[in-house]
Here is the input.
Amino acid sequence: MDKITAVEKVLKNAHFNSSSLAGETTLLWINLMEGSEPSRLEALFAEYFLIKTPEYYYQNAAEKSYDKPAFLCFEYDYPNCHSLKILKEFCQLYPCIPAIMFTVHHSEELAVWALRNRVWDYHYKPLDERKVGEIAQEMRKYLQASHSDQSVLSSQHLNSSYPDEVRFGSRDSSQTKVDIAVNFIHQHYSRFQFSRLFRKVTGLTFQNYLLNYRINIAKTLLRNPDAKVVDIAFAVGFKDPSYFARVFKRLVGTPPSDHQPGWHSGNAGNSLLTIKKPKRVNVPQALKSEL
Here is the structure.
């Protein structure tokens, strides 16, 4: 039986005993990588947790229920619509079990999709032993905190649309038009010419426009009560969470943490920064033909 079939059978037939704490150190590891090679990452996490796979549950199908795993771990190399649908359906079926996503292919759009679909944590590979240890420690902290707080992860308002790069089957499609535009700019404009033209068209410098755009996305993601500020910072393109927090407060007037639940509808009027609508501009015919 191939691993996708085993995963789908578990999704359809498994019943986890939600009242059991026996599985609190168990991970349900769902390997959705394209190849058949064993997962090195799974072996690293086996140093900290008991790992069970869909094959285990399928082989013990006579049992009517199983101890609830502490986490659902989904490992990808290059996700597609089918494999992402499996993650989404698991999260909908077992909203009380936090899900973690590991992927080789990483993009801002994929990370945003994961956060919007209530993935508890998102990491892109490769991960070394030190990083795995740090993640395992965060997972332990979550488990300890969850014993005193019985609130569950909500499965409502899940976003059903997959990233374009996944839906269209191209690992680089999200960058194609950007690469064409960047190459055209390098060939036809100096840095000064580009900056002056960009400001004329948008009313903002390129750097300020990009910062506004990223902060707009971050404000939407902060409404997810399960998302961490540091993860959102990385998801919208900031490499330094402290710098993200400073920029956010400078542009919005309040720190990112103020926009997480209890975020309330009274803030809705100020929920997004306003970017000046660009004026119409004649795009060079050579660039039009390439796009």
In short: The longest strand covers residues 26-31. The longest helix spans residues 129-148. The chain is about 45% helix and 10% strand.
